[in-house]
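Please go through the protein record below and see whether the fold suits the sequence. Record follows.
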Amino acid sequence: TDAGGTAGVIAVGAHGDNDGGDNAGSVYLLKLSSPSSGAATVDSTSKLSPLHGGLAQAGLPLVAQDKWGASVTQLPDLDGNGDGELCVGTEATFVDVVFLASDGAGGNFVVRAGVRLSSARSSVLPAVMRARISTSWGVSVAGLGDVDGDGAPELAVANGYDVAGGGPPGAPFL
């Protein structure tokens, strides 16, 4: 990624990871070296899961079968701390926007804060969108950049089982 201070970092989703629950899922952040010989190596890794990286402390608990990490996309530095953010999809009807912080020493990352986008009434999503969230919402996510020119980046979230409109199931949400 190259969002904010996360240049040379690759996010890898592991939705079948059992750390903290059967198929709860995780995301690994791999910090790459700056290659002088043309081949990058992994300098350090950070794991974000139910047991590592501060998800629960940031209000983003995971349980068995959430399959967190089914999809991952980078987002720009939304909070101005110099570290890019992530959007992590699941197969469990929610998507998390994860605000990262670097530990400043070895390039390890932890979750500083987060926002869960879901069908829950407490979600920041509009009610009309929350009503259409179903199983498999978040199976794919993509950061689109600032599509409409308002200065804020857009996010696309796939709902694999949306049947509104009577056509084949599936729909993107922006």
In short: The CA atoms of residues 38 and 53 lie 31 Å apart. Helices lie at 127-130.
